[in-house]
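note to self: dont lose this again. the chain is below, predicted strucutre after it. 166 aa total, dont forget to put it in the shared folder this time
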Amino acid sequence: MATHFTHSAHIDARLETVFTSYGDEAFWRDRMAAIGSPRDTLDDFVTSGDSTTVTITQHIPDEDIPDVARKVLPGQLVIVRTTTFADFDGERFSSSARAEAAGGLGVIKGGSEAVSEGGVVVESATGQVKVSVPLLGGKLEKLVVTHLTRFFDAETRHLNRWTATR
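---
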């Protein structure tokens, strides 16, 4: 059984600026430098029509991995994350995302919708985490959701800094 999560972010920018930022390769390189690991890589960046698909490989530092999770990891925790931003219509846009831990230990699936509300962009994400480790899966899923929340908050702070200069 998977663990569900929700997250809401407020970005102090126009909706078009946020969507355009997600469609800018420089934004992703800057984001990785600001809040990622030095070993993170931008593996694919494709903009086509009104959509952008970004694939990043993230290397989670050992100090960010709880002891209980380190016991079941076959080595370094590496996550491949693909997100597609699309359907911008001037009022909203959406995203779909999938992240998978190397070795098939876990999968995160989700999506978001961004809308303009009272001068800010509200981006609401939902998804689920599934960790395939017998007996510990549920506990590890909750740890992943906690980590995701901190990571999403860091991404929002970065996006706010980025869009403030646009």
